Amino acid sequence: MNIDTGITSEVFTIKSQIRLLDIFNEIINKKSQIVYEYLKSLNLDNNVKIIVIGTYFTGLGIVKKLSEKYNNIILVDIYPHLEQLLYTKIGGELKNNIKFSSDLNLIYNGDVVIDTTGFGGINVEQSSKFNVNTFIIEDPIAENNDILLKHKNNILNRINVVNSQNKAIIKTKGINTKTSGTMSLTMRILTNALDNCLKKEGVLYSACEMGFFEEIIFKEKNIDKFIELTNMPAIKVSTIKPFNCNEIINRELDKITSKMILNET
Questions:
Q1: Domain 24-176 in CATH: superfamily?
Q2: What Pfam families does the entry give (predicted)?
Q3: pLDDT per position as a tens digit, 204-227
Q4: Which of 21, 43, 47, 116 is spaced 20 to 30 Å from 233 by Cα?
């Protein structure tokens, strides 16, 4: 635990050893691990052609995890600059080379297709053209606690029109977020951690790195700036009685679960 004195010697500033990067990667790993285990259970050849649609951030973690075993992976994303994320520590490390493309025509060239595009991504008409061995889609909804988002969610319509013998849905939830995106989950972890820190006796206030990261990634297109911010301590606390704030973050992370739901249609 990182401890400094505050304005006076009687007040301390404690900083988590856990960085934003660590929170991102823990969430991403929960998702990518279940995809890896599901594909492994299908006994697919290591050279099976895998297409992952969408980078930010589930797709990024999935291709990195699958690169441990599979040799023919293409990551397709309409934002070319997101290729840079492949060579960062977000989502883990690449074990084998993968291909990156912004050509959406390539999404139909795989034996396995993994759609992580969520709201506003691949539509029903595009999904109806898939004729693949395995199709996996990420559910962008977490807890079904928002009527508008629930009605907006069309993943069942998308998966139902796909021609595939193996269909599955990635379902991630656990901390009462509306959506299952890595950024949504991270922001809730941070706000919950801040609230729990404030409940401790002797705490003056707590703060965290909570910039609007999507703007940095998609508007500024500044991946280097984003990566620099992810290396910051996740939370900082001003207190007269130091404590381990890593434990508070880890308790929130432990609540998050990710599983595969098989679709029989």
A1: NAD(P)-binding Rossmann-like Domain (3.40.50.720)
A2: HcgC
A3: 999 987 778 999 999 999 999 999
A4: 116
pLDDT number for residue 138: 98
Closest CA to 263 of 186, 170, 172: 170
* Residue located via tokens 């629930």: 150
Q: Give residue limits of the domains in the chain.
A: 2-20+177-255, 24-176
Burial class (CB in 10 A: 0-12, 13-18, 19+), 260: middle
Nearest to 182 by CA among 48, 71, 119, 91: 91
Identify the three-state secondary structure at position 93: coil
Which residue type sits at 57?
F
Q: Which two tokens stand for residue 197?
A: 């820190």
| Helix axes of 245-255 and 182-198: crossing angle, nearest 10 degrees | 140
What does the alpha-carbon distance between residue 167 and residue 197 come to, in Å, rounded to a whole number? 42
DSSP state of 86: G
